[in-house]
Amino acid sequence: MTRIFVDSDVCPVKNEVYRVASRYNLHVFIVSNSMLLVPQSPLIEQVVVEAGPDVADDWIAERVSDGDIVITADIPLAARCVEKGAYVLEPKGRILDGDAIGMALAIRNLMTDLRSAGLMTPGGSTFGKADRSRFLSALDTLVIKAQKPRLRPLTFPRE
Question: Do you know which PANTHER family this protein is assigned to (predicted)?
Answer without folding.
Answer: UPF0178 PROTEIN YAII
